[in-house]
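[AMINO ACID CHAIN]
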Amino acid sequence: MQVAQRIREGKQGYAMDFLAYPLKPLRRACRRAGILCATVFCILLASCTSPEQKGEALFTKNCTSCHNFQTNSIGPLLGGVTDRLSVEQIHQSIRNPKGTMPSFKHFGDDDIDNIIAYLRTKPAPPKKEFTPDGTELKDPIPEKIQMSDLVIDIHPVATIPPSSKEGQKTRICKLDYRPDTKETFVLDLRGKLYRLAGDGPKVYLDLAKEFPKFIDKPGLATGFGSFAFHPGFAKNGLLYTTHTESPGSGVTDFAYADSIKVTLQWVLSEWKDGKHRELFRANMVQQIHGVQEIAFNPLAKPGDEDYGLLYIGVGDGGAVEIGYPFIAHNVNNIWGSILRIDPQGNNSKNHKYGIPKSNPFDNEVFAVGFRNPHRISWSKKGEMIVSNVGHRNIESLYVVTKGHDYGWPEREGGFKLRYYESMDFVYPKDTTKNIALPFAQYDHDEGNAISGGYEYWGNKIKPLVGKYVFGDIVNGRVFYVEMSDVEKGEAPIKQLQLRLNGEKKTLRELTGEDKVDVRFGRDHSGELYILTKPDGKVYGIVGPK
């Protein structure tokens, strides 16, 4: 009846609302409104939608993960772009982009024209008063990452089924194992968790079916974020997942001022015997830098303080980049932090999980100062290693300890960042504040976004023993540092060479894509894996012996 009433009233913006409506309910609503031909009315609605509205919908779905209209983000700011580029140039940059931006060849000319119409409504932001003082670092880390002599052999283990006909075939991003059966699992951000069986991947869990409000768009960092089996799964059968839903899909447990936009919500869930319960839900300013990692300490044993406690990496939600730095870097907020909770406790505010007594701030927060704590893993010595995806200059690795501050947005990696002036530059290291420094970092001469990895715990590949293997998401370069150098504070990064069927190959060559979207995994025996989204390939690292 509410829809029918709005049809009668013809309120502003009704076309966009109704075009998103399922057809059958819309027909019923139209009949209640006294409209005989609902199908014709739907066509009329479509024709009433302005190019700007259509363009906004396309932009929100496909572009906001990398671009905004106020600052440079993953991609350049787009405020005023139609004053800087011609229509033909914008068409070309969308249809056949250069560099790391994905291609949108499936867009028709009308789609791009509608996006341009929307972009015309977004003027250039007012220029901030910023005057370079000569201390900005044009090349923060002039030393180049060296290619090592170590060549590792990789072998295809599985190909995950395509989950879309548009863009990348898959969005596989995490590999982990079930502690009781030792089986290996891979998730696709578009909603499915696969078990790698002898005869191929098998769907173990489909979040898109389980949660009616599940969304995996507008893309980057949205969808099925992460999963973690409880270390006591053999007895309790508990599995934990994170995923995204539309704003307002549920009552949030973590919110900021209601004057600030909510783009989506991240949901942490617990599963047992095929049923789920919600532990918490958090609002996000943008879709980037969400809750993309959850993990249990695999070294903790029953009786240890850390056993059964769930670590949760929560990004800043893009808040800093669009002018809300106060949302992050705050021990009283979850954004930009590593959380630690007892999922089987009940002393949280919503009584759905517990807050360990040993947490440093009497809340969920374990450590602060992260832009996007992309991956959490542990060394053999028990050190928690966290990779932090940088902004415009620095990608970094940290040993994270309880109660420490890792700097964002006052620091990008180990460098000073004057985020209140310009986020395009970093400045020399500043150790005057009590902010922890990374043990390894690289700048954007070498890559664009760090893909966190693992220390090699296996015993099949002796040359990898004592090495932490990771890489760059975009260009697919595979790196390592010696764990013996981590305690020194500045571990040199070296690049590994890859070999498939006796022939040296890069991941760009293997995927045929400029943007490799590489991820890493480690199985129950400590052996390592490489995952590539564009082709859905899972490679095992099998040599050299």
Notes: The longest helix spans residues 51-62. Residues 1-24, 35-45 have pLDDT under 50 and may be disordered.
